[in-house]
Amino acid sequence: MLKMPDTEFLSLSDIARLANVQRPVVSVWRSRSKSSAAPFPESATRNGKQEFFDATEIVAWLETTGRGNNAHVAEDMTAHTLGARVDFISVSALLALYAMSGERLSDLDYDDLLDLADETDPEDEFIYSEIEALDQASLSLVKYTERLIDAAFGVVPAFEQLMADRFHLNNPELAECALSASALQIAATAALEISSKSLCFTENTPGGSDLLVTVAKLLGESTLGTFLVPEKSTADTVISRLALRRLRTHCAAQENIALIRPDGSQRGVVHLAQYPGPDDPQMSFATILDSIEELVLQLQQDERAIILAPASLLINQLDSSELEGARSAILRSGRVRAAVRLPRGLVVSKPQQALGFWVVGPEPTSVPLGERGVLIADLLDQTIDDSVMGDLATDLAASLGGLESIRRHAFRFAQLMKTSTILASKSGLIPEAKTTFQLLAGSYSNSAEALVRTEAALDEANRTAERRPELEIPLQARAAEYNAGPQTVLRTVAELQQAGAIRHLPGTRILEGDLAPENSTGVKVWQAEDLAEGTATRTIPALALAAKYPRAKLTEPGDIVFHGGPHPVARVDAEGAAAVRFPAQILRVDQQSVHGIVPLLLAADISRGAIGHWKRWGVRTVPSDQVSALTAALLKVYSEKQAAEERLKRLEEFSNRLVGGITNGELEMMKTNTSTEGRP
Questions:
Q1: What is the DSSP string of 535-550?
Q2: Are residues 650 and 558 part of one domain?
Q3: 21 within some domain
Q4: Residue 201 shares a structural domain with residue 110
Q5: How far apart are the C-alpha atoms of 50 and 353, rounded to whole Å?
Q6: Sign of the Cα pseudo-torsion (186, 187, 191, 194, in order)
Q7: Measured in Å, how far apart are the chain's first and last C-alpha atoms?
Q8: What is the dihedral of CA 202, 206, 210, 216, to 10 degrees?
Q9: Pairing of strands 585-589, 559-563
Q10: Listed residue (661, 663, 651) closest to 457, CA to CA
Q11: Residues 313, 274 within the same domain
Q12: Please, are residues 272 and 211 in contact by the beta-carbon 8 Å criterion?
C-alpha cells in the first residue's frame, strides 16, 4: 500500500485544467516568467520524465499573478491533484462508502471504518476488500477523499472526476475501450427510446459502467428507473468491482434510480453492451460474437438490447468464413432488428475506428421468414448532433415494430433490407463503405423545426460553395519523337519485379498479443483490415519488434501495402517506418526506375478490382519523365475530389430536407420576384 503523500502534486496538464486554459499556455507561462518578479514554481518531484509541482505553490502563483480563467483555484485544487492517482482504487472505494453510508469518514478510526465497510458491503462485492487493504498509515487518504468531494461539489462529481482521469493516468484497461460522450449519448438515447414503461436497464459490457451512468444522466432527478446489479460471477475483477462501486455511488446519490439484484421478476429489461469492454480490452472477434450470441439467446420476448462493437465486426465484410458464419447465425435468429455504422472517432483511443451498433428485439414471428429484414443505416460520414441522435433513436425504436408500422414510418436514416439478401451478400450488411441509406427527411415536431433544419442544411450547402482554386496542371502535346512508336502501358507485377522496378516484401506474422492500441507509443503496424479504412490502427513496441521479429521489414515512404484474396485492396504509405502484419504485404517501387510506375495509380488499380494472384495483376505505366509531375497532379485532383464530395453531401442533405418538408406539408415554396439572373 502506497502511503499518501503529505504534499499534493499537480502535473502541467493538471495545472492547465485547474486554471481552465490549454496545456501549451502553461508552458508559455513557465518560460516567460523565469526572469520576472514572480517566476513559475520549480518542479517538486518527477516520475520518469514527467514533472510534478507542489499544488500549494501553484495555487499561490496563480492567485498572485492572476493567471488563468478560474477564480476558485484554491477551492478546486484537490479535484486536480495527484492524490487520487496514488491509489485510484482505494479513493474510489472511499467515495462509494461515503455515498452509501452518509457518514463523515474522517471522524472514524480504522476499526470503525472497517465495520462501516462490512455493514455497507457484507458480501464483499465492491468495497470491503479495498477498505480492509488500507492501514493506519493510509488513513490520510480518508481526509483527502473528503477534500476531493468538497472541491468537486459532491460525491458523484468527485467520482466522475476520478473516472475522467482514466485518459491522463496509467489506466490503459480503462482508457482503451472508452467511448466518446457522443457515442454514449447515442446508445443511452436509443436505450430510453426502446425501453418499456418499467425503464429497467442492465449493462453487459465486461467491467463496464459508462453506458448505465449515461442513462442515469438522461433520466435526470425525477424520472424513476431501475438498474440491475451484474451477477456475482462477473463482478470479481478489479475493474468490475470498480464499475459496481461507480453504479452504487450514482444510485445512492440519485434517489429516483434503484439498483437491485435481478430475480427474474423484472419485465422489459433493456440490455446495454459494448465489446470489447474494460475488463477484457483485447477480446477477439470470435469471443465477441460468442458473447453477443449468448446475450441474444438469453433475452426474454419482452427484452431488448443495444450492442456496440467495431463496425468491422458488426457491419463490414468479414474475411474469415468462421466469423462470417457466426455473425450470420445471429442474424438468422431474426432478433437483430437494426444495424448502424457510426462515424469514426467515437472510440477515444482509436480515432480511425468506425463503431457498429445493433438493436436486438423480439423475433418477429408474425412476419414470414422470407419477408423478415434488418433496418440498416450508414452514418459513417454524418456529423453527430442532437438532431441526429434524436432522429436515429426514433428510427431504431420503429425498427422493433411490425412490418406495416415500419413501412408507415418516415425514416431519416434507415432502410429496410431483407435478411436473406444480407446473408447472401458477400460485402457485409452495408454493401459499400461510403453508401448512405438516407431517405427523405421525416416528420418534425412542428413546421418551425422543419424550416430551421432545412435552412441550416441550405446554409451548409452554400458554405461549401466557396470558389475553389483552379487546378494548375500545365499540359502540352507530346513531342513527336516521344510517341513515334507504340508503347507498352500495361505490364504485370511479375514482369516489373523481374525487371527490378518493383520489389515484393512479405508481411510479418506478428502475434495478436504483441500488438498495442493505436495511441500507444511504438512502431505503427499495418493490418489487412486497416487498408479499407486507410489508417493503421495498432502499434508494436520497438523493442518487442526488434527482439521477437528481427526480420520484419518496415515500409518506406511511397510503399504500397496490399492484401490480395478475392477482394484486393491497397494503400500508399506516405509516411513509412511501419511494420506490416501478414497477410498484408508490401510492394516497393524503385524510385529511380525508368519503367514509369506511379504508386498512387498502382494502388488504385489494385483496389478497383485486380483479379487473380498478385503477380498477375496488370500495372498501368507512364513515360518515366512524367512520373513525378503526374504524382503531384493526382494529389491535387484527390484534394479537389474530397472538396467536391463534401459539397455533394451537403447538397444531398438539403435536397432530402427540402423534399421531405414539402411532401410532409411542413414547408412551402415562397413566391418571390427576386431575380435569379446570373445564377447557373
A1: S--EEE-HHHHHHH-T
A2: no
A3: yes
A4: no
A5: 30
A6: positive
A7: 74
A8: 10
A9: antiparallel
A10: 651
A11: yes
A12: yes
Is residue 151, in this structure, part of any structural domain at all?
yes
The H-or-E segment that residue 591 falls in is: none
Number of domains in the chain: 4
- Tell me, yes or no, whether 191 lies in a domain: yes
Residues 331 and 300 in one domain: yes
CA distance 589 to 124: 63
Give 618-656 as a DSSP string. EEE---GGGHHHHHHHHHHHHHHHHHHHHHHHHHHHHHH
Tell me how far apart the alpha carbons of residues 140 and 3 are, in angstroms, rounded to a whole number: 9
Q: 536, 524 in Cβ contact below 8 A?
A: yes
Mean pLDDT by 10 residues, the chain (680 residues): 57 85 89 89 82 90 91 78 71 91 85 91 90 75 81 86 66 77 91 89 92 92 88 69 92 90 87 92 92 92 93 90 92 90 87 90 78 84 80 80 69 79 81 38 55 68 62 63 50 81 88 78 85 80 88 88 81 87 88 76 78 76 77 74 75 80 78 49
Q: Is 408 left (phi over 0), alpha (psi -120 to 50) or beta?
A: alpha
| CATH number for 219 | 3.40.50.150
Range of the domain at 51: 9-170
Question: Strand order of the sheet with strand 270-274?
Answer: 257-260, 225-228, 200-203, 270-274, 304-310, 354-360, 336-344, 373-378, 415-418
Domain co-membership, 576 together with 654: no
